[in-house]
Structure formats: C-alpha cells, structure tokens
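To: structure desk
From: M.T.
Subject: fold request, one chain
Message: Could you run this one when you get a chance? Sequence is below, nothing fancy, just the single chain.
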Amino acid sequence: MKSFSILIALVIGFLAPINAQNNKDLLLEEMKIDQLSPDFHKSRRDALRKLLPPKTLAIVFANPIRNRANDVDYVYHQNPDLYYLTGYKEPHSLLVLASEDMEFDQEVFKGEMLFGQARDPQAEMWNGKRLGKEGIQQKLGFSQTFTNSEFKDFDLQLEQYDQVYILNMRPDVNDTRSEEDLYDLIQQFKEKTNLSKDYNALEENVYSLMRQSNAENHELVANQILRYRQYDKRLQKIAAVNDFLKAKTAEERQAIIDKLPKNKVNAQALSAIMAQLREVKVADEMEFLRKAVTISCIGQNEVMKAMTPQSSEREIQGIHEFIYRKYDAEYQGYPSIVGAGNNGCILHYWENEKLQVGGDLVLMDLGAEYRGYTADVTRTIPASGKFTKEQKIIYDLVYKAQEAGFAACKVGNEFQAPDKAARAIINKGLAELGIIENEDVRHRYFPHGTSHYLGLDVHDPGQYGPFKHNTTITVEPGIYIPEGSDCDPKWWKIAVRIEDDILITNEGWENLSALSPRTSEEIEKMMAQESIFNQLKKVKID
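Reply: Done. Structure tokens follow.
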C-alpha cells in the first residue's frame, strides 16, 4: 500500500500544470516536517505584542554575516530572537511588530511585517535558495511581507507611537557593496528615527541606567556603567557619561540626566521582554530541545566506548560531532570543548590540540544544536577507562555537589539555589581533603556559576528570578586544580565538570540528559564496552 500511495502521489504531481507557479522554489514544496511550525512563531509574536506597552513599535534586526578569512564567511546563524519570532533564517532582514494593528496608506496591517531578501537567481546560484516574499508568506505564515529594498521608502508613521523598541541593532555591521544589506537597513532606520549615524545602542543603555539612578542605587549603577565602558571603549569618550561618574551629588547627576538626548528609541526594554518570554519553554520548544540533548548524550556515550590513552583531543571532538550529524543535528551549539588533564582547567578551552590524552581525565563540554535549540552536556572521564584514586575522589565530590544542585531545582526557589547547594558541598569537601584551609575561605577551584538558562542560545536569556514552571537550566558544578596550585601535587591537573540539562516544572525536576552515565562506576562500565570507531585504523600520512 505504501508503494502504491507514493506512485499515485508522483503521478498527481507530474500531471499538475507545469506552468503553474513555475518560479516556486522546491524548498517551499518540500518543507521539513521536523521543524517548528508557523503557528509556533505566530504564537510567540502574539505573546510579545501583548507584553508591549500601548502605542509601541518593536524592531528586531537579523544577525550580521561575519567574515572568516578573505572571501569566505562563517556559516550564517540567525539572531535567535528573530528566529524565535519568525522562523526566518536569512540575513539582511528585520521584523516590525506593533502593540496594536497598524494602519499604513489607509490599509490595516495585523501588527506585524517582515522585510526579507528578494529572490535573486544569480545570488542563489552561489549562496543558496531564498524564500522571497511569496515564500515568507507560504512557509512562515506572514500576510504582510516586503523585500528589504522596500524598507528605505517605507513610512513607519512613527507619529502613531510613543516609543520604538529595538533589538540587535549592532554598531559593528560591515557595509557591503549591496544597497540592501543589514548595514543599509540599520542606517535607514536611524534616518527614520532621527538617530545619529554613529548611534550606539549600548550608549542608549547607559543613558537608561543613568535615568534610573537614585541616591540608593547610584553605586550599583555607576559600577554597571564602568563595566560597559570596559566592554566598549567608545563610551569613555562621551562627556555626559564621564561627567555623571564624576558628579559628587544627586543634584549634579540629575542636571546631567536632564540634558541627555531624547528620542523615542529604547534599546533596552525589548531585551527584557524577550528574556521573560524565552525563559519559559512551550511544548513545541521542548520537543526539539529534548532531541538536541539526547543526541548530545549519544555522542558522550560513544566517546566513552571509543576513548583510549592514544586518542587526541581533536579526534574525540570529531566523534562527538560525527554523532551530531548522524542524527541530523545541523551544528554544534557552541565551540566544542575537549580538555585532557591541565587543559580541562581552562573553562573555555577550544583549541583541542593535545595529540594524546594519556592517563588524564578528559573533560568534554559539548552540545548539539537541533533546529536551533542547543544542548549543553559535560562529562569527565578517565582516558584509561579507570579512575585513579585521586581522580575518583574529586569526581565523586563533584557528583555529590551536582545531586545537591538538582534537589534545589524547584519552582519558586531563587535562581542561585542550585549554586549555593553545590558550592557548600564542594567547599566542605575541599576543606576535608586539605586542598583549602576551611570551607569559608575564598578560592578559585570552582570559579563559575552552577547554572544558566538553556534554549535557542546555550546561555539563553531569562530574568534570573525565582524558578518558573517549564524552565530549562544547566546544573554544572566543577573542580579545577591547575598544575602549580597551592595544594598537594597529587591533586594537580585534575579537572572535573559534570553538566546536565534540567527541566523544572510544578511536578519537580527532570534530568533531560540522564541517558549519559554520570556516576564514576557507570562511566567505567560504559567505557568497558566495545566501540565501532576503534575498528577504524589510521592510514599513515607522510
């Protein structure tokens, strides 16, 4: 029956009028089933519009294309916020949303419009198919679509709005030869809103902080501005910012604030609203996040079977990423970290260049990205297949701390609860081992936080308040003892991180990455299994 159905479908397809919609892209006719639906993205836009204040326009820009070397660019990755709201993956685009339905040229729009790339056979021959206006309407469910070239002469009728929220309008976008690129879209927006050509959204964030300052929070605000100044040196040249930081009294600061430039553009508020939305996952999102996590766990398990002291860090990375592709994950969610021995003490070690892992522990922090959603799973395993005495002591201490972190993952608990629980266990354990003087002393053996949100970004946005129903976070305690540390050398070069992806609901917590072994005994058992990868023999290359 299945073969007959396929034959009938092929015949019907062949007999359809050949000249009907000849310019239709096959991409529109062969949509993947395994992807987020237009209804999901529409629901996210509707949710955002409800959170916008009255008479507010919201503009979300695409990510820029980044150059890798010469005339080769990095693989393009869409701004996750724009993807979340639209499903659109192409560059040089922007989304316009309004709190109420919009009226343009006596035509009422449904509060949303997407400006995207036009079809271009020449460009598509080199860089892949584009949806075009028709494709955006058919595949993504937009009723109002425009090409990016139409934005220049499009009247946003800003007089209808009290404020304009912007997101992802970066100051470091390259100007290409095209007059329809992201750089031009940003400049056109600046012209429409009377912003200066060198407008910096971070500058506006600083102004917003200044306006929110008062006698009670001034020191906190000043410290945040100083951090911004370190991040972007251009802020150091702005007189108003410098004068604000030098002001001695609240009256002096208010006089400076009163003179700040005023416009309708707000570069801060929309980020906060998106964090509120993306912090809580809906069912459609969890389907893809679960798949990303499961694929990542399979990768960890296969590496446990394949690991030998002769393995290189890069070879280990390759097995993980092969598994991702084998299970149809498009990318890694972030650069893969494979650190043996002392390399594991480097939190973001991306070189992965050690040629043999030897008898060290190997810390593997990797995550598959599946339909935009990324996992974040870390396992630390002994290259030899067996933990040494010291390695097992440290590993089991981190495992115990992680269990305490899991127990703190409850709706209503403060975001820092897992960190406090895990840190207390680690500090007490390190003191008992004599690695630190006492459990209250400050040390650098656990230098990072225990949790972050997880979703379209590996460090997903969120409000970092009390845990809510359907929130996904990581729980990832660690101990890192670099060579030369102020403790017994027997502990040197031991680095352990165990990281799992946790769904928090009203019913409790669920370990999404439980498929991959976590206890030292389970890891050794998994590593004793045979691996198909070890049947591959390297050919000697002269």
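Reply (cont.): DSSP finds 17 helices and 21 strands in the chain. Let me know if you need anything else for the meeting.
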